[in-house]
């Protein structure tokens, strides 16, 4: 009798274990039109507590047990229509689940759309850089990038197989021209004129009959006549002597009516300048003599010469001075992050106000980008941060110097962020993905 009870007990356990067999559900969630992997989508086995979120590659895995073989997955992600997918657990097939974007109206005082739009994509070409044009967008596309460079070129990334591509504002026109050399990026001046910086030459980019054309300009002329100009205000042209390899520079106002030059502000990182100049005392006596002779020849201080001789500007101790200027309406704004001040000047170049700023001092894990930028259409000023790979933009109230109205970009590790007319444009490629680098935009 006891043996029969033991046999029945083990038979019962076997049936229970069979009923509780484990299964694995796995797959990938993609954006319906672009097939871009979607990170952070919530995947739930309907009617159960089994759920997970997709990773940065859009993939998910759910291990389940003690449920029927026929189940339904519910996939949800903000900005996309919810989707239900019937699944047979015995098939063990990896699922591919596309989601369709939708416009979501948020109830409250602010109503806007939560949506990521793909501006330009290709299966063969990447986007290296872009610039806004009056008629649309200019893209620098490429086939390959040079990752192996000499030490003197280590700060630059060179792109080969490049084209400058023009896309009209309506999207109905797309044309291109070939770049005759490796390129490093695009530059836009204060008149919104675009330039292409090549490895050897600089090109002015113009649109002729909706087709981009490149014209070589002298590099020295570009560096001396175009890059130093910040903006114009009234009859004044605002210029900067900024050099990232030197811890001081000046802001000037050039009056086009009488050719007078006005010094607006001398910017300096005092501690960095002290370290910069102290390099002279560590030089070999022979090098000190060479620095002194160079001072006699050029008038440049021997201590400044010594810092460049030692390569201090390329050391881990050196940090460029971060004090950009932005012209907002009829006011000049200098964001002096070294001295924690927002300095204001009127259209005549006279100082009118100074505010304390603290937005650049944030605790970890949040990391400040070191940049402020202006929406070229609205004159609103923004800065942005990195929070676990996500870009968080904040609007800076220039009346108080305080940031507000945070907006987090949908994709992680966005590059080349620019703002126009309330849209954030950026370049993105999913991590460890075969997808090329696309251009996206999001409405703030």
Q: Span between N and C termini?
A: 76 Å
Radius of gyration: 29 Å
Question: Which geometry do the CA atoms define?
Answer: elongated
* Helix segment tally: 5
Total number of strands: 33
**Structural class, please?**
mainly beta
Question: What fraction of the residues are assigned to beta strands by DSSP?
Answer: over 45%
Largest sheet geometry: 4 strands, antiparallel
The poorly predicted ranges are 1-19, 103-113
Helical content (DSSP H or I, runs of 4+): 10-25%
The average pLDDT value, as a whole number, equals: 88
Strand order of the largest sheet: 3-2-5-6
Notes on the protein architecture:
By secondary structure, the chain is mainly beta. The protein contains 5 helices and 33 strands. The strands form 9 sheets. A 4-stranded antiparallel sheet has the order 3-2-5-6, with no helix packed on it. A 4-stranded antiparallel sheet has the order 8-33-32-31, with no helix packed on it. Helix 4 crosses helix 5 (about 300-310). The longest helix has 18 residues, at about 1-20.
What labels describe this entry?
13% helix; 4-stranded antiparallel beta sheet; 33 strands; elongated; 444 residues; disordered N terminus; mainly beta
